[in-house]
Amino acid sequence: MEKGLKWETTWLDLPSGEHKRPEYLAINPVGKVPALIDDGVIVHDSTIINEYLEDRFPAAKPLLPRDPVARATARKFEDYADAYLMPSLFKIFFELRKSASERVQARIDEGWNEARQHFAYLDKELAGREYFAGEYSLGDISFVPPLANLERAGFTIPPEFANLAAWWARMKARASFAASWPE
Q1: CA 6 – CA 53 distance, rounded (Å)
Q2: Residue 31, by phi and psi: left (phi above 0), alpha (psi -120 to 50) or beta?
Q3: 68-178, what's its fold?
Q4: What is the full per-residue pLDDT of the chain (183 aa) written as tens digits?
């Protein structure tokens, strides 16, 4: 949506294991989401998909800065979302998928404590700027799915992380945010 491209979304029921069925494994043999099919070309992994779309549609609104330093900064934050924030949040999400009697609260607390450490870092990085790489980019977009899922799980960015909370409010105000989830 941010690049102004048209696409068709197919939603998979992950809890039922739909992403592990032969039909989807034919698209992505490792059974992870997301995957993109573009004119018969299959691309998977959100990072690779986003960079593919940048390269494939260079005339559409760029989501990686042209300046090499800002571009590297955007990529740094995209990696941070995937490699650092997400593993902490998965600790929470994994437990919340269980019935209340099977959940391990200590694991949820561990994930939340780690998330708060990530929030402190991200809040500091946002000091004096609206977006992670200076301008809106894939570095910002990469945090939307994990933070939206965290919010849907009943957690909010604590108020002491004012820069991050303000950034999150800006992200949720974008039209792309409203269009990113099924009705």
Answers
A1: 12
A2: left
A3: Glutathione S-transferase Yfyf (Class Pi); Chain A, domain 2 (1.20.1050)
A4: 787 888 887 888 877 888 888 888 888 888 888 889 999 999 988 889 889 999 999 888 889 999 999 999 999 999 999 999 999 999 999 999 999 999 999 999 999 999 999 999 999 999 999 999 999 999 999 999 999 999 999 999 999 999 999 999 999 999 888 877 655
Q: CA 84 to CA 118: how far, in whole Å?
A: 8
The rounded distance, in Å, linking the Cα atoms of 18 and 104 is 26
This prediction has a pTM of 0.87
Which two tokens mark 153?
A: 């799980």
Beta bridge partners of 134: none
Q: Which residue ranges make up each domain of the chain? A: 14-56, 68-178
Q: Which two tokens stand for residue 140?
A: 């910002």
Q: How far apart are CA 164 and CA 146, in angstroms?
A: 14
CA–CA distances in Å: residue 90 to residues 7, 84, 96, 113, 132: 28, 10, 10, 13, 23
Alpha carbon distances (Å) from 165 to 94, 122, 180: 24, 10, 20
Q: 3-state secondary structure string, 102-127? A: CCCHHHHHHHHHHHHHHHHHHHHHCC
Nearest C-alpha neighbor of 182 from the set 44, 8, 43:
8
